[in-house]
Amino acid sequence: MPTKAELKQKATHIKLKVRKGDRVVIISGKDKGEIGFVAAVSPKEQKVIVLKENEENPEQPLPLNAAIKHRKAKTQGERSARIKIPVPIHVSNVMVLDPKTNEPTRVGRRKEDGKLVRYAKKSGEKLIDVPVMEPRSE
Description:
The chain is mainly beta and 138 residues long. The protein is flat. The protein has one domain: Roll (SH3 type barrels), CATH 2.30.30.30.
């Protein structure tokens, strides 16, 4: 039987600074320096899946930190293929891009009009929650 303290520790809500749709840069690993957007967030494991825009086919984004999976042909007419699968990356290995300067920045939270708002620490600019795959205006 778990104690009350153990139950309370399990029930704590993990708050991450990165959200779905944020433009991020990978700061470590094999894809260091690559810029993309967050497609999925897993607060429990503290991991994110990062994709980048595909110029050739905007409907199909390319995965960053990808693993290659070999798929064998099931029928004679079908071809075998190498498929890139996005692998989750730890939150500490990505940084949110500042909307004003387009540089990596840390994220803070402050109250504005009674609501908690995320902001970029470098410029003080408010981070707007952007839906995934929305064309950005520059």
